[in-house]
Structure formats: structure tokens, C-alpha cells
Amino acid sequence: MDRVDPYLIPALDGVAYGLLLFVVASGLVLSFGVAGILNLAHGTLYAIGAYVAATLSDGSWLALLLALAAGVGAATAGGAALSGMLAAVPRGDHLTQALLTFGVALAGGSLLVMAFGAENLPVRVPATVDRPVDLAGHAYAGYRLVFIVVAAALALALHAVVNRTRAGMLVRAAVDDPDMVACLGVSPARVRLGVLAASGALAGTAGVLGAPIIGPGPSTAATVLLLSLVVVVLGGLGSVGGTLLAALAVGEIQTLGVALAPTAAPFLLFAAMAAVLAARSHGLIRRWSPA
Amino acid sequence: MLRISGLNAGYGGGTVLHDVALTVEAGRIQAIVGRNGAGKTTLVHAIAGLLRPYSGTITVSDVDLAGKPAHRIARTGVGLVPQGRRVFASLTVAEHLRLALAGRHNPMWTVGRVLDLMPRLAQRLGHRGNQLSGGEQQMLALARALLTQPRLLLLDEPCEGLAGEVASRVREVIAGLAAGGMTVLIVEQQLHHAIQLADRIAVLDYGRLIADEPADGVRADPAPIEALLSIAQRR
């Protein structure tokens, strides 16, 4: 127990961090796996949610709910706007998509700094969940425990949507064969709009709820995008299970890994990514599945 | 029903179909035969909207479809059973059927009706596309296309790779559809497959339609068409 004890908090932090990355990265998986769009502005959509949370939060539940509505709404609209901007770019033209969305990310990042300043902003959470909780003699941030529960519920909800709803069927079918989806009379443009809006909604949700963990600041968009891309590469495209597993692994590497091997910390994440890719080039799990 | 004229289409600037003209009357089965690479699938894709033609017209019931996107063409009543079946690997049979039928009001083809026609699918409702045999996948691809309520059904080598008995069952189903008034365009590599079903048989060679004959005549004397296919094969 004594040997495990010092690592309890970093391990729990890893779960919170991993679940946050799962919510963000599943949006990226959706946009790439279903719409075939490499969206490098995805981190910016997270940052929008985080800035909205920082601006509106005053320590009350009402403010958190308002921030959630406004942040998710803004990021959803951002995703939908990206869909419109990318309408003329062919599905397989990832270089143009990457350049366009990278440009949007740069411009969006500058606009956010102009609007909110170049400092990292603090985010206040409702007082009832702001208290530390005693965990095996360690004080642990109550909000992080709540976040773990909420993010786990979001993961279950996403799993249910993908596997139990018509929208989920469409998503899985579009991952398998978008041309055949079109031959059923479903407009690919509508699928792309829906997917990018949903992808933005996930990023915005993560931004608002995860702002106390990865807070709003000038480097937030880039950090979140980079970590999400690592999760996507590790988890494989089109797999809820793979994305969750990869996100939790990245979360643990970023927290428990640093606690266990501080000197190797800068290399751990990318070494793990290289190792997974060397062993399984398609990621941990291949596609959307009930697993 | 289906009228194609002056159709030129291809990929990346290269022309595969050259000035193709074809008319298929309502309720008839038109077969297109040709060797591998003759342009049969390109023709089907151009009609279904998966490939934008360079020029020419494609009308179905006098509605010009050339260049329209695949989802609009599907909504005007053109169903596709593609080469290789292309069922959705991660969707169950039941999900395929629900997705194909979604949003159709007063459908002529219902899930119950396609399951009556292809009862094997009823026993596999919970299986995913990639868990089905080739014959079951073909039935599923056909059921999926029927649930889009087509007036014109495009079938790209529907018996390819199927065992004799299964292929016969697929042909029976197709013949039954035509008997019920469905217009069918079927693409086949082998003349003996096409001859069993079709009302007319056309030969496509290097993207050009070089013959279009009533199937009765071909059945009575297949030699001229066989000779054309043999010449095409040797070239």
C-alpha cells in the first residue's frame, strides 16, 4: 500500500485527464473517420469553450450551465462553419483540409488572444464541488472527481448514440462506405455538416467542463490539438473503444508517467505512440464497434 | 424509362465511356456484357451518380440525372447493387434495412416485404455485414437497394463469386422483380449469366456499345455476340 499510495493521486488525475482527452478526441475521430476531414482547428473549438467558461463562471451552478450552453453552442456553430468552408474541398484532399483548418486555427487563436488577452485565465467551479475530498489520506480536488463521473457518462452516452440511434447507424455506415450511404439517398453534405457540428459540440463540452483541468490560454488550442491527434493515432480511426483506451493511456502517461519517471516525461508520450504504431499500424482497435 | 445518349465519362481526365447511347424500356431487363475493363462498372457508376460524366444525357422517366449527385439520383428512384456488394461491415442486417428505409413515406417496399422475398435475411437480422456469406451479402445489398424504393435497379455483376445454387436464387429474385414491373439494368461479364435473365443484351467494348440485341435472338443464336465478346477478349 505504501508503494502505491504516492501514485494514487497522479493515477486518478490520469483518469480525469484521459477522459477529458477522450471527449475532445472523439470529435476529431468523428470528423476524420466519418466526414474524412482532418480538422486542425479542433483545438481552437475546445479553447472557445474554455474561454467561455472562464468568462462566465462565477462559482455558481447557473453560471456553469450558462457557460455550457454558450460554449457548446459557439463550438457547434464553429464546427458547422468549418463544414461550410470545407464544402468545396474534395473528401480525400487532406493537405488542403489541413492547410485551411490550420489557417482557421491560427486566425482563431489570434482572435481569442485579442479578445481575452495573452494570460492563462482562471476558471471558477461551483463552490459545492470546489472542496477537496479526502482520498486515502490525500486531499483531492472534488471537481475532478465530478468531472470523471460526468465524462464517463458522456462516454457511455456517445457509445449509446453510436450503437443505438439512427444517427449512429449513419455514422458507422459512413465510416464503412460513404458512397453507399449517398446511394441510399442521404446527402453527404448533410452528413458532413452534422458530423462537424457534433464534433464541435464535443470539443465545446470538453472545453467548458475541462477548463479547470486544461485551462484557457494562448497555448491551449495547440496543446489540446496535439494531444487529441496522439489519441486519434493511438486509438485508430472510427473506434469508440480505441479512442477511450488511447485517451486513458495518454492521460496516465501525462500524469502517472511523469510521477514514475520524471526525467523520461518529455519522451514518454511519443515513445508510447511510436511503440503502438510499430506493433499495430491501425491503432489499438480498428473501427466503431460496441466494444 | 432509362435513356442514355452521347455519354462520355472516365477518371482523372481519361475517357472510359465513349459516346454511349442506350434505351431501356420500363419493366424490362437490359443486360450489359463485356470483358473485364470494358467500362461496365463505369457506366453503372455514371448512372448512379458516383461518377460525374464529362458529357451526355442520362434520363430516367424523362428526368435528366447526368451530373447530379448520387443521393439525389437515389431519391429519384435509382437503386444500386454494386459490384462486390459493399454492405456496411459494422451494421447488422436489421440496421441496414432500417437505415435504407428511413424517411420513406408509404413505401412500396417494406422490411417485411423484402424479408418475405429473401427469408434467409430474416434469420440473420442480428449479424453484421462482415459476418454474412457472399450470398447473404448479395441478398442484403439487394434488400438495401429495394428499400430505397427504386423504379430502376442497377445490378453490377450480382452473381459474381457466388456458388451455383445461390446464384440461381439471386437470379430468381431479380426475375421476380422484373416480372413485378421493375426496370433492371444488369451488368455481367459472362454472357451465359446475362442470357438467363435479360430481355435485351448489349455488348460494351473499350467503352463503346458495339451491339444491342433482343435476348430471344441471342438465346436462339448466341454465336454473333459470343464472337464479339471473343474478339474483345483477344484484343
TrEMBL record, chain A:
One Pfam family this sequence matches: BPD_transp_2
Membrane topology recorded in Swiss-Prot or TrEMBL: Multi-pass membrane protein
This protein's record includes keyword Transcription: no
Top-rank taxon, per record: Bacteria
Main location: membrane
Membrane-crossing residue ranges in chain numbering: 12-41, 61-86, 98-118, 138-162, 224-250, 256-279
Cell compartments where the protein resides: Cell membrane
Alphabetically ordered keywords of this record: Amino-acid transport, Cell membrane, Membrane, Transmembrane, Transmembrane helix, Transport
Family: Belongs to the binding-protein-dependent transport system permease family. LivHM subfamily.
Name of the molecule in the record: Branched-chain amino acid ABC transporter permease
Biological source species: Phytohabitans aurantiacus
TrEMBL record, chain B:
InterPro entries, per database record: AAA+_ATPase, ABC_transporter-like_ATP-bd, ABC_transporter-like_CS, BCAA_Transport_ATP-bd_LivF, P-loop_NTPase
Domain ABC transporter: 2-231
Superkingdom: Bacteria
SMART domains for the chain: AAA (SM00382)
GO molecular function, one term: ATP binding
Keywords: Amino-acid transport, ATP-binding, Nucleotide-binding, Transport
Keyword Nucleotide-binding listed: yes
Family: Belongs to the ABC transporter superfamily.
Protein name: ABC transporter ATP-binding protein
Organism: Phytohabitans aurantiacus
